[in-house]
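Many introductory courses stop at the sequence. We go one step further.
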Amino acid sequence: MMKSLYFLPLFLFACSQGCAKNYPAPPPPITHDKSEIVVQDAGSKLTEYKNSYFSFSIANSWSQQQLDNKNSIVYFTDTTQAGSAWLVSKEDFKGTLDQFALLSTRAAKETGLNVLSSSKIDINNVKFFTLLMSKEGSLFWMWLTVRKDMAFTFGCKTQDIPENKSAEVCAPIAESIIFHGN
């Protein structure tokens, strides 16, 4: 079974025990293994998350946790916006972006998410399929792509804020995604 089917329920319930609570200040930058680097410039409001596949910039107010080293699931929560989460997943996948998008959309609907919109976009010369979904006051944004027999899911969840504010939280992170190599 594809991990993306596992990814959606995890994303839905990842915050159930704490995202609505106030968080302490984020911990100092951490590194989990030699292939992953987190760089925090003292004069910047952004932290760069980088691994051997991609990098992205995320505000210093986001706190990082590694949920699953084997499946490359990295999870961030925003210490200033209760209920906000950013989740990254990588899985083996031999197929096209359209196939992965279809499987992910079906999985979202089976999980009870309402799909509000979907589209194909380019971010830094990489094709992505995007989904905007909702469930019980939360909005879920997903950016999906397939590269070199691997599928990547970048997801963002916000809670109890309007769609335009949710986009302000999520879109800048997604727009900073850069893949390394071909």
